[in-house]
Amino acid sequence: MPLQQTLHRLDRALARIADAPPLVALFVLALLMFAVLAPLQATIPPIDRDEVLFAQASRQMAESGDWVDIRFGEGVRYKKPVGIYWLQSLSARVFGGADLGQMWLYRLPSLVAAIGAVLATYAVGLTLLDRRRALMGALLLGGTLVLAGEARLAKTDASLLFSIVLAQWALARAWLGESRLGWPIVALFAGALGASMLIKGPIGLMVVGLTAAALSLLARDARWLARLRPVPSLVIFAAVVLPWYIAITITAGSAFWDEALGRDLLGKVASGQESHGAPPGTYLATLWLTFWPAAILLPAAFMPVWRARVDPAILFLVAWVVPTWIVFELVATKLVHYVMPIYPALALLVAFGWDARVRAGFGPVWLGVMTALAALGLVYASIPLVLSMTVNIGGSLIYYSGFLLVAFSAYAVFAALRARLALAPLVFFPVLGLGISLMLFGHLSRVDYLWPAQTIAAAENPCGDGPVRVVGFTEPSLVFASGDWAIDDGPGTLTGPCASIWIEGRAEEAAQQSLNDAGWVLAPSGGAITAMDLGKGREITLTPYVARREATE
């Protein structure tokens, strides 16, 4: 059959790439990941709530030139350190020109970091395994749905992942080495840890520290850590981290520490913040979604990994996965992307086990299990269509394009598995991730019901250049959509003889009374819209009004 012949040729080509100098594999991986992660960066509307909070604060930093304080609107934004805001602000300054209101500018660091994390995973695989399994692990990580999502969002997690994988690469070299590491590797280790500390506080330190502690306990010897030159590493780490932390303490006093450490970090440990609490075991249950399609091979890879559990390379990867996984399962607040720093190690473990499984051969039972897990893609593919149909919106060209891509790739994966090929199935995993992204992000981006801020921004202002106010809908996407709208529950700062006001149904009576008491007369200016408030997870109704009065204040 032509497809079988093509898959065999593809498998041989990938084997040649794996055996070639590492720069060849890095180049191919970078091109492939850019091709599957770059689409949709500019077409997805700003997503409430976290993405827009990061992007708007970065936009204000780029506009103000204040690289120390972090602000959203007139208030402060101290939940996370400054690292991601620096990256996003620099991206906006370099690529945005005079228009800093394009969301892709703030997503670009996540795209670059996601690609970088895949390349760094390949480097870790070269250190611990071999070229073939390193390439397989990078392909597995590059296809995961969680990475496909985080690469398209202006948040911290892709950048954090990249910094952690870089630090773990240096740690792996120390674990398997016989002498102290050279200064470039030491500087990379300390610098990557410092970057992680500036991006998301102590999460990177936790992942790397738990890995080192677990390995030292297993080996009953911690002297191998001396290969990282602890004193110079600490000096480099401090040089990266301390200047901004000192500067923000001088600027904000204890306010930053109270918010970032007290309410955000420790609050998430103690209780499920913002309705994101879940019991232990949640991440294991959701692994089949977030780690898909790499999860297709997970059951088949388990026993080969178990049999090789005393191998130092496998020990390193297990020490990377297990302690951090346990901590995240025990933390009260759970979001599916929190465990993403574990996925590079899990991908390399699956690559090791899968390669061993193919070499040993497998029967129809394993083929059936993997086929069933591959078929989950069709279930995942149906979710965006079902969601849009609940608001009477059917499929779209981009949805059906994504569906065809998923269907073809899933069949190609099945055919490659049936042919007992090791590498060919994996190259379709990132393509599966792209197909799901087209159906989820691409299709739902065209459902106006989900994006009320975009609808308001596109509406004609009956007052020309007069002010626009929104009452009762307070999501940050409103601020980003216009750059200067005020979210107001009353007359607020309204000036001039005419203002455009959108009022959410629950706030209608109180808002009208407040505006009438302030001398404003309201008249409907169009039909109400029904939309979803993604931040609060509830349906809202927004009615546009023209507010007029004879004299300005």
Instruction: Compute the separation of the termini in Å.
Output: 79 Å
Shape: globular
Q: How many β strands by DSSP?
A: 8
Give the oligomeric state of the chains in this entry, treating copies of one chain as homo and distinct chains as hetero: single chain
Question: How much helical structure, as a percent, in the residues?
Answer: 55-70%
| Tally of alpha and pi helices | 23
Strand content: 5-15%
**Uncertain runs with pLDDT below 50, 5 residues or more?**
none
Given helix and strand content, the structural type is: alpha/beta
Q: pLDDT average, as an integer?
A: 91
Radius of gyration: 26 Å
What characterizes the major β-sheet? 6 strands, mixed
Write a structural description.
It is a single chain. The protein is an alpha/beta fold and 553 residues long. Helix content is 63%, strand content 7%. A hairpin with a 2-residue loop joins strand 1 (71-72) and strand 2. The longest helix has 26 residues, at 103-128. The model has no long low-confidence stretch (mean pLDDT 91).
Map the helices and strands.
Blueprint: H1 2-19, H2 22-37, H3 50-64, E1 71-72, E2 75-76, H4 83-96, H5 103-128, H6 131-143, H7 145-150, H8 157-176, H9 183-200, H10 203-219, H11 230-252, H12 255-270, H13 282-290, H14 298-307, H15 312-330, H16 343-360, H17 364-389, H18 397-418, H19 424-427, H20 429-444, H21 452-458, E3 468-471, H22 477-482, E4 486-487, E5 498-504, H23 508-517, E6 521-524, E7 529-533, E8 538-548
Parallel strand pairs: 3-4, 3-5
Antiparallel strand pairs: 1-2, 5-8, 6-8, 7-8
Helix pairs in contact: 2-5, 2-6, 2-20, 3-4, 4-5, 5-6, 5-8, 6-16, 6-20, 8-9, 8-10, 9-10, 9-11, 10-15, 14-16, 15-16, 17-18, 17-20, 18-20
